Amino acid sequence: MAGVPAEVERVDGRTARAERTRAAIVDAHLSLIGEGDLRPTGERIAERAGVSLRALWTNFKDMETLFEASGAQVLALYDDNFTPVSPELPRAERVTLYCQQRARLLQLIAAPARAAAVREPFSRQLRVNRQRHIDRVRDEVEILFAAELTLAGPDAATIRDGVIAASMWPAWSMLREGLALSPEAAERVMTRTITALLDV
């Protein structure tokens, strides 16, 4: 490149290669999880990414740092597929649209959520990742159902927390896997539950 010192070009090239390697490792991690390997080893991740095991641990010092990067990619996927629901709509329509979107997003992140649940008790980073999802849903619920929460007065926090709990992965997992409901049936249960909670 004209006018760019050779050393700068070399540094930029190394940075770009490192970013590609990190992206390939994260993609491999999430791909294996998506195929049902809920606890992929470093060896399997490196093999899928097409890098050496040494390269894996050079780019990620341990599984916790890989969980952080993979969690960020899952959140980015979540955000790319999220559309705010207007709080100006009638309550029934807000509940319907909220539950439709929650069902779609939970299906979208089902594989990494399932894998995180397996390892979360032993991983601080996975607990941090989960909290980030909870914070997003809390913010959405407080905005979307502000009118109902205001009417609830001293019960507002209880109702808010009930809505959040009814629309997070543990509840969805129970409906889909514990009760073997279809996504459509699970969404109907979520909608009925949240409608009842907001009937203030």
Ordered list of secondary-structure elements with their pairings:
Elements: H1 6-34, H2 42-49, H3 53-59, H4 63-80, H5 91-108, H6 110-119, H7 124-144, H8 146-152, H9 156-166, H10 169-178, H11 183-197
Mean pLDDT: 94
Contiguous helical run count: 11
Gross geometry? elongated
Percentage of residues in DSSP E strands: under 5%
Q: What's the structural domain tally?
A: 2
- Largest sheet geometry: none
Structural class: mainly alpha
Number of strands: 0
Q: What is the CA-CA span between the terminal residues?
A: 66 Å
Run of helices and strands? HHHHHHHHHHH
| Residue share in helix | over 70%
CA gyration radius, whole angstroms: 21 Å
Low-confidence stretches: none
Task: Please provide a written account of the structure.
This protein is mostly helical. The chain folds into 2 domains: about 5-60; about 75-195. Helices cover about 75% and strands about 0% of the residues. The chain has helices spanning about 5-35, 40-50, 55-60, 65-80, 90-110, 110-120, 125-145, 145-150, 155-165, 170-180, 185-195. The mean pLDDT is about 95.
Key features of this structure:
77% helix, 0% strand, 200 residues, mainly alpha, 2 domains
In short:
The protein is mostly helical and 200 residues long.
